[in-house]
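Re: your question about Spectrin beta, non-erythrocytic 4

S., sorry for the slow reply, the queue was backed up all week. Below is exactly what I fed in.
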Amino acid sequence: MANASPDLDNAEAQRQLNNNNRPISSGLWDTECTSSKLFECSRIRALADERDAVQKKTFTKWVNSHLSRVSCRIADLYNDLRDGYMLTRLLEVLSGELLPRPTRGRMRIHCLENVDKALQFLKEQRVHLENVGSHDIVDGNHRLTLGLIWTIILRFQIQVIKIETEDNRETRSAKDALLLWCQMKTAGYSEVNIQNFTTCWRDGLAFNALIHRHRPDLIEFNKLTRSNATHNLQQAFNIAEQSLGLTKLLDPEDVNTENPDEKSIITYVVSYYHYFSKMKALIVEGKRVGKVLENCVEAEKIVNRYEGLASDLLDWIEKTIAVISNQKFANSLTGVQQQLQAFTTYCTIEKPIKFQEKGNLEVLLFTIQSKLRANNQKPYVPHDGKLISDINKAWERLEKAEHERGVALRKELIRQEKLELLAQRFDHKTTMRQAWLNENQRLVSQDNFGYDLPAVEAAMKKHEAIEADIASYEDRIGVVVELAGEMEAEGYYDIRRILARKENILGQWGLLKELVVGRKARLEQNLALQKTFQDMVYMIDWMEDTQAQLLSQDFGKHLLEVDDLLQTHSLQEADISVQAERVETLNSAALKFTTLEGSYQPCDPQVICNRVNHVSTCLEELKQLADKRHEDLEESRQLWAFFQELEESAVWIREKSSILGAQGYGKDVTSVLKLLQKHKTLAGELLAHRSLLQILSEQSFGAAGIQDHILEVKADWKNLEDQAALRLHHLQEALNASQFSTETDDLLAWLQDAYRLVSSEDFGHDEYSTRSLLKKHRDVSDAVDKHRSHVVALRQHLGALPTQYRDQEVRGAVLVQLYTEVVEVAVLRQQWLHDALAVYRMFSEVNACELWIDEKEQWLDKMEVPERLEDVEVVAHRFESLDQEMNSLMGRILDVNQIVQQLLDGGHPSSTEVRGCQDHLNSRKDHLDSVLRLQNYLLECTEIKSQIQDKRKAIDATQYAGSDLGGVLALQRRLSTMEGAPCINGCVLVPFEGISVEWEELKRTLQGCEDSLMVAGRLQSFIQDLDSFLTWLVQTQTSAASDQLPNTLEEAEKLINKHAALKEEIGRYEEDYERLQAVNELLETEEAPLPHAALQQWLQKLDVGWNKLLEMWESRREVLVQAHIFHLFLRDVKQAESFLNNQESALALVEVPTTVETVEAALRKHKDFTTTMELNLHRIKAVIEAGESLISQNNIYSDRIRQRVDALASRTYTTTGESAN
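Result:
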């Protein structure tokens, strides 16, 4: 039932087309109908026209709604479909397949071709079209055009509708299924009763009910009334267009009529069906997408949890590392013990908890990967720094810091225990030292050493004994200081108390030493004071003598004298410095007596101060005089030194300037390079003297004329630098010119040598010498080509030379001209050498051929025709070998003629001689052919004559010629051939006349065997036909036995066509085969004795060969057919692989959507992709089934077919799996 429905729908459409195609004859109505019938007829016409107008408008909108997907549109249904282009585009959109490309032409033939392509596609889609041709659509036939569009709507819009009822599970199709769907969707609406597609839709409630059933939010159905049909229709059409996106195919006035058009309403209602069916599918797909999104959200939550826990753990690790990496410990034994206890608590309580969290993170990451893998999602990769490996690395750093912390705490504990022991030792020793210091301070604080020298000396000795005792006790004080220093270095926590006690001990120790030193100083003051006063008197006398020398006004007359005075003054300054130190010592010693603390004074401080001031004043005056004289001498020395250096610089500048002006620029490259090296050395000297001149110019002297002299030297220096730069420039130019000249000379010399070689008139005296010369000439030509770049470089070098070297342009022009001549002469010489080689080769071949001809002519002239038949056969065998040699000679002569023709075409100067040699050789060859034919003729005459004589003897002996009838017939054929041969002269006819006489005698002998001869004649004709047929049979078997296999589909088709032509040729020869069989039967009826055994043997060979030919043709045809089918299969495989490549590229570009809108778009796109893939999958399955069928049929390419089928099936399975995922 379901399969018959589309055919019924198509049949209904065809009946509509047929009815529309029947023209109405107005004349018949005018003559035979009454006025009432005329009115009825006009009414029917009006209704039909109105129906056609409604259908045209509806179908036009329907076509545009589909053509809009490819950016196309029609304005008039009848006119815009005439060229077939829009019709093709419409079918491509509806079917999703590509139709043949329309012909881009506006002529009628083009339009008919395009419409034919569209109609052919409809026929391939099993759409039956009757009485509809391409000319009807091109001519714009209204009714047939409407019928065609309705057929397309039935095929691609209505035929796909299938509804299964719930009661009997009956399946309906097409219009009934659509009507049933409408009834099912409007079952709950009391005012809607759909029984057809015409009047039941006039009030508009049915359209509104369909929309309200699926989208109740768009329409308030309770407010609609049946009386307001236009409003109902307009509302339904507008909402469907604006909210549902359905094209408004109808207008209210098209439906709200007495007889609405059924096809228009069906076309519009079908769009409702497809939209709401697709919406239902989208809801199901949305639920699936929701589940997918729910899984994605759950996975994302777990991922966020993992990242949060990983971040917290990493933060704790970093903070813990920062805390335990701090090496600052409590500076006491108790504090370090408390820190060690806290560290132990961390290791046993806090760290295990975090270690468990790290393990939980690894489990959580495994759970995430498992969920994502189960959902076919991309594996989760944590961000940088949050990988398990990163956490393990951070944990390793934590354990390393933990280990370092434990080691440091243990070391600190040991150090604090050591410091406590040192503090106890320090307290014990400081108590003992304190008592000893108090006792000795009391002894040295007493000042009772007397008032005279002996008393002072005795007090001094007693004091020295006290000092010795104190000095021996200093090491014990050092032990206390060392203990305090060690504890301070180790950072003892109570170091302040330790340091205070140490400072107290050191203070008392210092006080003791001060008391001892003060007492000793007071003892020595009286002795030292008088000695100091005497030394002051001696010092004042020396200063007065030195002052007189420093007041001299002699500063020198030249540089050497000034240097001597400076040296003398330096000695005086050294003496003054030494005496100044001594005065300073004396003053210090004297002033000590004025600044003594306490009440003891060995002398009046004022007297001591007066003497010290006097000595100091004299010393200062002496120093001022020495400094002034030193400055005067230095100024005199600088002035005379400046004069000397300035003069030396001026002389050096003049010397170098004269050198630069006197030297030339060299005559060749070597001399120029030497001058450049010298100039480089001079440039180094200039650079060294530039710094010296700069120093001199920066000095300033007030003497008159010095600045002018400096300016003159600077001007000379500037001229020298300019002169050096100019000379360097000229030397560079000279070097370039010398290099150009040298390279030009070398190249000119080489080109002259090359010119002598290429202009040589020696072309060789034979082929070998000419080949040798040609090889040498090729080497010279290659060298000339390689020097082209050198010539171009020299021309560019010439353009860069300065104007004073422009005389080199003449040499450059000569160089270019010489190079051009060498190239031209080389080309000519190469051509001449080739011509000479060809001539020598030709002469060599000609000489060889003529020697062979001379030898054979001599042999032929000396040869005599033998009389015996056995000798004749030996000579004939030699003539056969001579024929083979003649064929070889002909090939060599043809080569000579070809060479001569090439030389003549090239205009060789020895053309006349070459032509004469060719003519002579050809004439010799023709003469040899004539002689050879003549000898063959004479030899054959002798042979035939001998054979005739032998046959006569045999006939005379047996009186019966039947047993040797074949030999007689062979002689007859040879004789007839000789009769038709051209005769050269009369002497040649003499042997033939003798043969004729013998032949007449033989015929007279055979006159009694006339019947046998007739049979022999027929037998001869039969044998000739048999021979030619067997020859053709062998050739045809060779063609049929060819093992050539095609490599492409085109070659397979060509070979099949060629094989079919061979079959036609075999069919033409089949009549000859049957005729030979009939002649054989005729010969068997003859009473004359014949060689039946031999004939039967040949006929058996004929039958076997004919049957073998047919078998070979059939076998070859089977191979070619299998090859053709294999290449057709390869073409289908390539198309299938192209489909798979497109699908794989589309799947490779798929991205996971992130929003609901993109998910819906992706689902729509994937649904279209799945539909296309299913269509392609059917084609691919058909290709695979075809391949399996070929394999099962044992195709000659079964292995290759199996490989392609397996590869195609594997790719199809992979692509289908990826699409399903």
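The longest helix spans residues 262-324. The beta strands are 162-164, 171-173.

Happy to talk it through on Thursday.
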